[in-house]
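Private note to self, pasted from the team thread so I don't lose it. Backbone tokens:
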């Protein structure tokens, strides 16, 4: 797991085409809400597959965050809007919120 995290950090720091965006806006809200919904859906799907609660949480979080990273990678193409660490931060915040809400709803 540590090797995967390290690899992702090394690969993502090489994005030469970055966005010059703000921390707020409709775009950020969309990143947050979509990531929250994807994390909750990933958790629920894993739970229905018979995976334990702890492991389903990992699947849900990784599912959501990996889709957010993929979207930013797509944006970092030369014809894209550029990699946005701010968008990615909102993705991570949304994923963790979605996980928390999913956990609270289960209890």
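Design output:
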């Amino acid at each position: 797991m540590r090797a995967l995290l390290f690899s992702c950090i090394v690969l993502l720091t090489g994005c030469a085409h970055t966005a010059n965006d703000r921390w707020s806006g409709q775009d950020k809200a969309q990143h947050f809400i979509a990531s929250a919904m994807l994390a909750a859906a990933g958790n629920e799907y894993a739970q229905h597959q018979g995976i334990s609660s702890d492991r389903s949480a990992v699947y849900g979080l990784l599912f959501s965050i990996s889709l957010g990273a993929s979207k930013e990678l797509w944006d970092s193409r030369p014809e894209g809007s550029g990699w946005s660490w701010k968008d990615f931060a909102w993705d991570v915040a949304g994923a963790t919120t979605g996980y928390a809400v999913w956990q609270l709803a289960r209890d």
